[in-house]
Amino acid sequence: MRHDGGAGMIGRLTGFLLGLSLAGAASADAFDESRAKLAAEDIHVTTGAAAGYVPDETCELCHEGIAASYAEVGMARAFHKPRRSRVIEDLEAIPFVHEATGHRYTMRWQDGTYLFSRWREAADGTELDRFDAPVDWVMGSGNHSRVYLIQEPSGKLLQLPLAWYSQSGTWAMPPGFEDANHAGLARPVQRNCMTCHNAYAEVPETADRAGYPNVFPTALPEGLGCQRCHGPGADHVRLALVDKAPIAETIAAIVDPADLPRDRARDVCYACHLQPGVTIQGQVRHGQGFYSFRPGDTLTDHFLNMDFQDGDREKADRFDINHHPYRLEQSACFIESEGELGCTTCHNPHRKIAVEDRAEYYRTKCLSCHETDTEGLPVMASAEPHPAVAADADCTTCHMPERRTEDVIEVTMTDHLVTRDPGPLEALVARLPKHAPQVVNVDLHDALPGMEQNTRMQYILSSILTYDGARQTGAATTLANLIRSEKTTAYEPWLLALKSLVKQKRYRDAAAIADEVLARAPDVPDVIANVGLVRYAAGRKAEGKRMLADLARTHPEMTTPLMNLASILRQEQQLGDARTILNQVLAQEPTNWRAWAMLGLIERTVGNEGAAIEAYFASLRIEPRAKGNRAALADLLDRVGRAGEARLYRE
């Protein structure tokens, strides 16, 4: 963010600023100096994977006007703690009933808490399996939608199965939860999601790398602030507030995207808004983390977007909620301008355009490039007169119309594919069924001609394995063979190949690469967890259990290896030890329904029927669709003489 009075100096400083920004983040020593000096001013400077950031409200001290304007922009409101003053949802339009499952949902404000509830009803109307939880975080500005998160003691964030859609003013299921077989309460919010839905969190230095726990601190930023686009602000703030440095030096210590080369400025936007498809996730470059990118960097040095061919439709027909640059780059306006047309040609990231001003604002933007006739209408290539434009309309009404997105079917978005004739506008916003793309080809979105083909294939295979939950045996085999033949030094593809083989229960194949993975990343927790399983499966049971037990001590927040250890102990009839591990899991992750179910099984085995019943009840409150657990609970209820309750769980 610029100093309000420094605009005239920016041009003279472009070379200095560019050199600084392209060099990457300031040195650790510089941040240490800023950290020490700003601590005396009670201004915190982050450490770890996202070092050098200050609280965004610090920017308001000098940039009050811009900060006030930006606070109205959706990005600033993208993530926050629940507050009564920020509730925009219709709390009377509930319960919402999900037809595919019959589950009922409510949200209500109660005693200072935003409370989520879900339950199902028996045939006689009896309420069953009620789950209540206070919402910890709200994700989404509410311009189009909002979803709701709870945070486990481990730090894991989980998405709740309910969303608010502002355009229709209705409750419905979030994307991916539409069908009966959805994730329920078990969808973790991944770091790649949080990277763009919020400012960078303060986490340890390697925590944003592959193989580290997907957990977050309880104190998180609230919304995307100034530094998401301007870079870490510690040195800039120190120079301005403490050192009282010359204005030129102070300005040069912060990135202004407006002064970056066109492609680098575009990368600031593209880091979050270029997503060719939510189906196939992009890949963090080997050696980088989710928080590595800084404004001024080349995006592809940190992150590789992936594109794919949909067997059901052409590329030009695909339209997702985050397709703004993807569609814009297919437009003649973008192509013929040789990329001069970009995000900030029309969008001021610091300002939300008032509804009553939008028609004139966007018309002016378009007409800054397009010639007009004597009537003030655009000159058409056909030499025919342009149709009259309604006073409350603008060029985008017809040429960049609202269109229903295929991945989030409850919302419509502006289609940034600039077109002459989009067809009937009503058809573009009509309701659509959820479309699951038929992925027939995957490749990098960017050409990157300097990248070796084998390296390229590693990223493509990684995307495929991520896309299908590591089920494709061919992709796992090819990736393992490729990295072995290439002797790839980066640990990330080795870890993914190992995890995929373990998930496919191909333990012999996994054992063939386990030592090499461990040698490359001996301290990465996910490597240890998977090598431990491979060791156990290969007959080195004591060693495998020891590796998992060590993780239980050093990384108790990693519940998956703990669950694997508990399962091993139960199979070995070490039920007391298994119970201890399960209680560790539940202390970190109370919503782990599988842990409750295994605990119920153990208690049933040792004859603790009351404890088993309570464990199964807890499991079913979290995951009421688990038929095996319902049957087990019904049997136990019958056994203790609670036949009426048992009958409800057999329906």
UniProtKB/TrEMBL annotation:
It is found in: Cell envelope. One of its GO terms (cellular component) is cell envelope. Pfam families: Cytochrom_c3_2. InterPro entries: Multihaem_cyt_sf, Multiheme_Cytochr_ET, Tetrahaem_cytochrome, TPR-like_helical_dom_sf, TPR_rpt. Its cofactor is heme c. Keywords: Electron transport, Heme, Iron, Metal-binding, Signal, Transport. Gene3D superfamilies: Flavocytochrome C3, Chain A (1.10.1130.10), Tetratricopeptide repeat domain (1.25.40.10). Residues 339-403 form the Tetrahaem cytochrome domain. Its main location: other. One of its GO terms (molecular function) is metal ion binding. This is Tetrahaem cytochrome domain-containing protein. It comes from Pseudaestuariivita atlantica.
